Amino acid sequence: MALGTAVFFHAHPDDEALLTSGTMAMLAAQGYRVVLVVATAGERGLADLAPGDALGEARMEELYKSAALLGCARVVRLGYADSGLSETGGVAEDRPDNAFIDADSEEAAQRLAAVLKEENAELVTIYDPAGGYGHPDHVQVHRVGKRAAEIAGTPIVLEATVNRDPLLRALRLASRFYTFPPEFDMRTFERAYSPGEVITHRVNVRRYIKQKRASMAAHATQATGGDGTRTLGMMLRIPGPLYRLVFGTEWYVRRDLPPGVRLSHPFDQPSESGKSRP
After folding, report:
1. What are phi and psi of 199, to 5 degrees?
2. 149: which of 35, 85, 145, 154 fits an S-S bond (Cβ 3.0–4.6 Å)?
């Protein structure tokens, strides 16, 4: 019998690999039931395949491969269309009728809540209010996931994020040695994700770094596309020891905890001292 169920809610295939795959592999290895839910198939992402159904099908196949590598018990697609991005990184004007960003938030929350109730989930991950780096579908994940947890009564809601402070330092250092892909804008990360002071969970996933890297590699369509190597492809080129250092921690914010709480496991509860207590 599983120790408990954690649902990881993401906007597109490959988002799980970048933000939460180490935590997913860890929980699965520890005996928790891990469920992966995506809002869309990512059919408007940059790739060598043209945007559309064929790309969506390819990305879903990659998602199932990633999920298997991480030990997921179930994968669910909510069925919305990828909203895409404008050239300036905002909402695309040519998005499809069923775009996730245009979905009724309450209806979408009910769909996700149905999964949470069916799984009797004790934990769900979403994104921070800014949607990490600001993709419209990621912002919608925050809104929909937060409301779904309220509907289902899911007690633990974790916002998957990145500690902005060391990220900026690492990116500035990396820029001395690597040429970033065209879509990469350093300024985006100066206001993206979450500052260290609000982060409640720092999860050490170094024991599961091979699974995390394999999860990233499963999303082959996202390693290239557009004008060449993309961010995910660049990450996969990082040498093993440095990769372990850079990606060995995953970060979350739990808003219902008192200020200053620092935990190391998704299911931890704070003691009166604010330290981790299983």
Report:
1. -75, 130
2. 154
pLDDT digits (tens, 9 = 90+) for 101-122: 999 999 999 999 999 999 999 9
Q: Which residues pair with 203 in a beta bridge?
A: 250
Place of tokens 């699965």: 28
CATH code of domain 5-260 = 3.40.50.10320
Q: What DSSP designation does 258 have? A: P
DSSP state of 82: P
pTM: 0.90
- Whose tokens are 């809540």? That residue is 113
pLDDT of residue 35: 98
Residues 6 or more apart whose CB falls under 8 angstroms from that of 38 comprise 9, 10, 11, 12, 13, 15, 16, 63, 75, 76, 77, 78
Q: How far is CA 46 from the centre of its chain?
A: 18
